[in-house]
Amino acid sequence: MTLLSKSDQEAVTAAINEVERQTDAELVTVLTAQSDDYSYIPCSGPASWHCCCRV
Fold first, then answer.
1. 28-47 pLDDT, tens digit each
2. What's the CA gap between 29 and 39, in Å, rounded?
3. Are 43 and 52 in contact (CB under 8 A)?
């Protein structure tokens, strides 16, 4: 099973190359169905808190 078509792969490669030309950073692309199994529960607080609760 292919996650990206050939044209999608080329578009991602071109985008990464363009960003890497403009910075010293190296980008790494990861394709995954799920990166973790944590539940996300937004916190109710000031926007400046930038918090979330993981259970």
1. 888 877 777 777 666 666 66
2. 24
3. yes
